[in-house]
Amino acid sequence: MNYYALQIKTRSEEKYIKLLKALHPELTMPIYFPQRKLDIRRQGVLIHSHAAIFPGYIFVELAEEENILTYHWAFRKTDGFYRFLRSNQNITALSGKDLEVVLHFIKKVGPMAGKSKVYFDEHSRIVVTEGPLMGLEGKIIKVDKRKRRAKIKLDLYEDSFAIDLAFEMLDAADIPKTP
Fold first, then answer.
1. Which of 34, 36, 156, 168 could lock onto 113 through a cystine, CB 3.0 to 4.6 A?
2. How far apart are CA 87 and CA 131, in angstroms?
3. Among 98-107, 125-134, 169-178, which is the least confidently predicted range?
4. Edge-to-edge strands of the sheet including 116-120?
């Protein structure tokens, strides 16, 4: 399978996908828009929200024998489209570290990243036992214990950005024992 990244209008990802499918019902390939759940406290009120993991990007999966150039005009003509990545003249499938990060959220985590389960070891380092942060420990750049969030740095095509992922701390009884 090949995965392609499309840059579209930020915060219009769901709208773009719905419009694309309505205008072009012949497009049957999977289109991914990974999201994350966050609890935000504003003026003492807890608000459950969700946001894009890769703001302004969606991902298209095509079989090896399919060519993105067959479909590129359908994507380009849909309102909200900006460009294919690398560029519209050099459409390149994701590979290497870019592909690993995207597949982590598409295949392992699923469409909505929830809370990870973590604890802190005797050196105050975060240890992830399950959830979306599992396998991304090396990308954590900041931990906010009070808000229960970990800021991770993601790279996509020479572009870096930081996002917050929620976690819940395990009780001492739930922490796995090491031999």
1. 36
2. 33
3. 169-178
4. 126-130, 116-120, 159-169, 149-156, 140-144
Residue carrying structure tokens 């994507």:
75
Lowest mean pLDDT among 11-20, 21-30, 92-101, 119-128: 119-128
- Tokens 């809370």 belong to 115
Domain boundaries defined on the chain: 2-174
What residues contact 41, with CB distance under 8 A and at least 6 apart? 47, 147
Which position has the token pair 């703001």? 55
Which residues are CB-contacts of 169 (< 8 A; sequence separation ≥ 6)? 118, 119, 120, 145, 148
Asked: is 2-174 a CATH 3.40.50.10140 domain? The reply is no
Residue 49 is encoded by which pair of tokens? Answer: 């929200």
Specify the amino acid at residue 10. Answer: T
Cβ atoms of residues 68 and 4 within 8 Å: yes
Taking each continuous run of H as one helix and of E as one strand, the counts in the chain are 3, 12
Bond before 86 cis per omega within 30 degrees: yes
What is the largest distance, in Å, between two alpha-carbon atoms of the chain? 59
Considering only CA atoms, which of 114, 104, 101, 102 is closest in space to residue 165? 114
